[in-house]
Amino acid sequence: MRIEELTWPEFEELKKHVDTVILPIGSVEAHGRHLPLGTDVFAPLEIGKRVEERLHGLGVEVLMAPPVWYGHTFVLDVYPGTINVASDALKAYVREIMREFAAEGFRRIVLLNGHGGNHSPLVLAAEEVAEEFPEVEIWLINWWIDFREDILSICSSQGHAGQDETSVMLAIRPELVKMENARGERRSSRVRVIRKDIGRELFPDGVNDDPSLATAEKGEAILSVVSEKIARLIAGEG
Ligand SMILES: [Zn+2]
After folding, report:
1. How far is the CA of 93 from the centre of ligand 1 (A)?
2. Which residues cross the membrane (predicted)?
3. Distance of CA 203 to CAs 38, 49, 185, 219, Å?
4. pLDDT grade, residue 237 (50/70/90)?
């Protein structure tokens, strides 16, 4: 059930027997010359939809919250179309959304994150909510990290706008993927360097992996295993 499609009396009725709300969070940012700016929201939205369907099959109902589209994305901000929200603002905004869900009575809030730059602000936001609402548990799921082993059994590499993310987008919205422009390589630095334009070195054209081997079949396999595993974790069978 998607919260934005419910009336308030329907919501009030549902929350009596639903204790988990899933909140997808992403970013509007450059993903190479081949993926859309909304990639980091499209992916968790699709995973969330599949998790909800699988849980329904297991007899567990959850509520899907409308996503948070804008995230914190310092490194990729050197490319046009990246809309970077300051870390403090994102932390405060997501914290307030979680406080409201906690006050509504939900006992588990699942942050389904699609973007690496959101990680630290989301942890800090979750800690503040957990302090205020000891009865509430917050899960932070970074799908491409938490299920890396599964992903790397499907893809030969992964990375920003890389083989895994491109495959997922080919499975979800193939018409938005320009495979003829899909190129890149893995780059890293020995220590973390924070500099205004570091993104141009580490993410040339907004890519940090070779996306050319991406396929819709790989994307379907990733979406399937990730959503199955998250659903089982939420159902307490994981
Ligand atoms: Zn991404």
Report:
1. 21
2. none
3. 17, 30, 9, 22
4. confident
Quick: pLDDT tens for 3-12. Answer: 999 999 999 9
**Strand boundaries in the chain, DSSP class E:** 20-25, 63-64, 108-113, 137-142
Question: Which residues hold their Cβ within 5 A of ligand 1, which is an ion?
Answer: 39-40
Block residue for tokens 């998790």: 51
Using alpha carbons only, how large is the chain's radius of gyration in Å? 18
Predicted confidence at residue 32, as pLDDT, reads 98
Q: Ligand 1 centre and the CA of 221: distance in Å?
A: 18
Q: Give residue 3 CA to ligand 1 midpoint distance, Å.
A: 25
185 token code pair? 């390589």
Mean pLDDT estimate for the chain: 97
Q: Which domain holds residue 9?
A: 3-234
**Cα separation, 182 vs 134, whole angstroms:** 46
Phi, psi dihedrals of residue 35, rounded to the nearest 5°: -115, 150
The CATH number that applies at residue 188 is: 3.40.50.10310
Q: Which residue has the higher pLDDT, 203 or 238?
A: 203
How large is the average pLDDT for residues 15-25?
Answer: 97
- DSSP 3-state of 68: strand
Residue 98, pLDDT score: 98
Number of domains in the chain: 1
Q: How many CB atoms lie within 10 A of CB 74?
A: 15
141, 111 in Cβ contact below 8 A?
Answer: yes
